[in-house]
């Protein structure tokens, strides 16, 4: 085991090990959950709506739908866009499996396009090549992912999607508060609905905003918004204006002169699910959301320290770097001898992580025909990538310890 005076673990107030990501629960968070528990609502209630409104405002979208987790959000977006048997949808292999699985849930077929090795995001040129190689209409949509918190250039993807008549679901799980600058120089926030049909977020504890479990869908499309509300709750509507059955059927076979739908009446119009968020989760999400910008600033400061530490180090071949609008869910470096470094860091109680094992190499997708060599950039990225500790409460002292342990390994 390598050891060095410089990398003695910081002794004060230290909690072992140092993870790659971590939630931060404050007294205010706890208070707002307690308040929710003392209220009349356990499952979806007023706080869910409040959370939706606040979140929509935060990302600059018109509508938001809170759901039980990010995967449910992806499933519902695919259902709302009517993904069905045989529909082909393009995404990146460097993301969490759920970004791809949602297409499969609906009987569609996910197609992986390679990443750009410079920014680790879905490469629009590879997407275009796929689209050009098939008759128009072969593909139905694209799911770009703001991987690690770096915003996809959604303007460019929207142009491409329009050309081929495709929809876009932006997977923004890593990037609440992140943005890219459009061709007019305006900041475009991830999930603001200007370029994507629908965008999704997750409130899993490792993400920026923690709700235990939770997810959000944002959109500027009112028809899709209404459809999502129904799909979230069994495909049921209680809105009189949307009823399809006649008043006769609603009332039942009884003598009546009533010309209105009875108050109990509701309709299940589509095959929906129960993907609701509970109100105490929404309370936690709301409280966390109020500190989201603070957390983002801390993440950006941490990224800057990593960048400065590794800028001239030959053992770091590539890194997330300093990018305007990056939300830094992850700080990724690419190194030689990744396994050796990983083990060395674990010995020093630094629990780094790998994001991600390319999805097309997962046995489920290999059994569908995908194999090594299909996405060479993603595969070569996987050979050297490592996600360093990145969370708002990571102290400068702990970060120095992490940097020291890395330098020690390559010394
Ligand atoms: C976390 C995550 C999801 C899934 O979210 P859950 O809330 O865990 O279901 C989907 N896509 C990406 C990119 C994620 O990081």
TrEMBL record:
Active site residues per record: 207 (proton acceptor)
InterPro entries for the chain: DegT/StrS_aminotransferase, PseC, PyrdxlP-dep_Trfase, PyrdxlP-dep_Trfase_major, PyrdxlP-dep_Trfase_small
UniProtKB keywords: Pyridoxal phosphate
PTM annotation (N6-(pyridoxal phosphate)lysine): residues: 207
Entry's Gene Ontology BP terms: polysaccharide biosynthetic process
Domain of life: Bacteria
SUPFAM superfamilies found in the cross-reference section: PLP-dependent transferases
Pfam families: DegT_DnrJ_EryC1
The keyword Cell inner membrane belongs to this UniProt entry's keyword annotation: no
GO MF: pyridoxal phosphate binding; transaminase activity
Similarity field: Belongs to the DegT/DnrJ/EryC1 family.
Protein name: UDP-4-amino-4, 6-dideoxy-N-acetyl-beta-L-altrosamine transaminase
């Amino acid at each position: 085991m390598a050891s060095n005076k410089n990398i003695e673990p910081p002794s004060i107030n230290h909690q072992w090990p140092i993870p790659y990501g971590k939630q931060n629960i404050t007294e205010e968070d706890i208070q707002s959950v307690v308040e929710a528990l003392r209220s009349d609502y356990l499952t979806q209630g007023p706080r869910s709506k409040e959370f939706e409104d606040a979140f929509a405002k935060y990302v600059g979208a018109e509508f938001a739908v809170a759901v039980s987790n990010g995967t449910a959000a992806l499933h519902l977006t695919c259902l709302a866009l009517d993904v069905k048997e045989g529909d082909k949808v393009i995404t990146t292999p460097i993301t969490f499996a759920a970004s791809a699985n949602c297409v499969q849930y609906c009987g569609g077929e996910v197609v992986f396009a390679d990443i750009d090795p410079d920014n680790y995001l879905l490469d629009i040129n590879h997407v275009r090549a796929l689209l050009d190689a098939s008759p128009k209409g072969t593909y139905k949509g694209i799911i770009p992912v703001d991987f690690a918190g770096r915003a996809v250039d959604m303007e460019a993807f929207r142009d491409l999607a329009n050309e081929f008549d495709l929809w876009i679901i932006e997977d923004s799980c890593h990037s609440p508060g992140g943005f890219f600058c459009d061709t007019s120089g305006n900041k475009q926030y991830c999930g603001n609905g200007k370029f994507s049909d629908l965008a999704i977020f997750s409130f899993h504890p490792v993400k920026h905003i923690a709700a235990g479990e939770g997810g959000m869908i944002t959109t500027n499309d009112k028809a899709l918004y209404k459809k999502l509300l129904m799909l979230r709750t069994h495909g049921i509507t209680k809105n009189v204006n949307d009823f399809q059955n006649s008043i006769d059927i609603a009332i039942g076979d009884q003598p009546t002169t009533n010309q209105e739908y009875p108050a109990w009446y509701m309709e299940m119009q589509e095959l929906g699910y129960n993907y609701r968020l509970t109100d105490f989760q929404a309370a936690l999400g709301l409280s966390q959301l109020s500190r989201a910008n603070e957390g983002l600033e801390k993440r950006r400061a941490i990224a800057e320290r990593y960048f400065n530490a590794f800028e001239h180090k030959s053992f770091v071949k590539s890194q997330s770097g300093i990018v305007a609008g990056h939300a830094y869910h992850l700080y990724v470096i690419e190194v030689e001898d990744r396994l050796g470094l990983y083990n060395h860091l674990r010995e020093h109680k630094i629990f780094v992580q790998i994001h991600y094992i390319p999805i097309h190499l997962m046995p489920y997708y290999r059994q569908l025909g995908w194999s090594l060599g299909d996405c060479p950039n993603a595969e070569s990225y996987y050979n050297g990538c490592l996600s360093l500790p990145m969370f708002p409460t990571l102290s400068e002292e702990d970060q120095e310890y992490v940097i020291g342990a890395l330098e020690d390994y390559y010394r």
